[in-house]
Amino acid sequence: MNWAFTSSGSVTETYAVGLLRNMLEIPSTSYQERALADYLAEAMTDLGFLTHIDGVGNVIGVIERGEGPTVMLLGHMDTVSGQVRVRSEDGRLYGRGAVDAKGPLAAMICAAAGAVDFAGRLVVIGVVEEETPRSRGAMAIRAAHQRPDALVIGEPSGWSSVVLGYKGKLDLRYTVKCPATHPSNPAPKASELAVACWDALVDLLGPDASHGVFAQPGATLCRLNADMTSATADLSIRIPPGFDVDALVGALRERLTAGDLDVVNSVAACRVGRSDPVVRALVSGVRRLHAQPRLVVKTATSDMNTLAEVWDVPMATYGPGDSSLDHADDEHIVLSDYLRGIDVLTLAVTELAQLPVRADTPETAAPRPERSLR
Questions:
Q1: Are 274 and 234 in the same domain?
Q2: Do both 144 and 159 map to the same domain?
Q3: Which of 19, 256, 276, 356 is most buried, with most CB under 10 Å away?
Q4: Which distant-in-sequence residues (6+ apart) come within 8 Å of 32 by Cβ?
Q5: What is the pTM of this model?
Q6: How many CB atoms neighbour CB 271 within 10 A?
Q7: Is 44 in the same domain as 127?
């Protein structure tokens, strides 16, 4: 018996905590994920996965356990910048990415390795660049892989909560140049035009716009570099389901008297229902641990948005960790919650083995890993 496993086949608590701590010890800010990918490829191979790292740097591990559905567990390896000293204190493990989102990804790896009663194919993926506008890792997965029969996205929901959906996001960039002139000249200056663009956006979204309400859009002025002759403003709008992006961009352009407004990135909102099979499986797992599950929606975005744009499959987001600690200077995860999250995922994955297998065309079949790193 591998020392990482108990006699029943589940991953030991010692191994699970050690895995996460090792992940936190490896810095992996966006675009710098390779060292973590290499570590996870080796760790997953030791746990019985067939592993490889794809062309964009995603680490992919597959476990085949007989005939049955394909369940994909996908989380991101990258973190925002900033150091949080890795340490254990009072049952908490501190480190950048402890909740966003190395904790959920580590829980997925441990759950898949320990789900010995699952019949089918388990695919665990750590993607790159989720914390960037382009989500290149998830984009590569949806382009190259067959859609699974079920998908769980790893983000901090809290061990007893399940996320049904996220707002979408529209990123805009406004640029303008003006001739040099005296400050007292009544002609509009580039800095003033950039501020007017922001004011026009706020006006178009209306007085009910809010980041705190899922059904309403919310805007952020992310960056403003401006003087009298040139200005660049980066605008980000979180958008609810059904929001007309083209209408907003068109209306905003009509309000501008000069300059250019470019769409940098756009991803639609996504939401599944309470009866979604993945939601039901996760809820069942929480209840079997004697807790009352909560179903929530988020006003941010995640790789669930990116994959839901092309994959019409059962899906939900789940992961241990308090999302209010995302990007925080004291980012940490409560270890007992992390371990409960592994148990919930293990139970949910086992239940999802009852799903029917989708019939996809050979052209969309997932490429098999060519080699193991064992």
A1: no
A2: yes
A3: 19
A4: 78
A5: 0.90
A6: 17
A7: yes
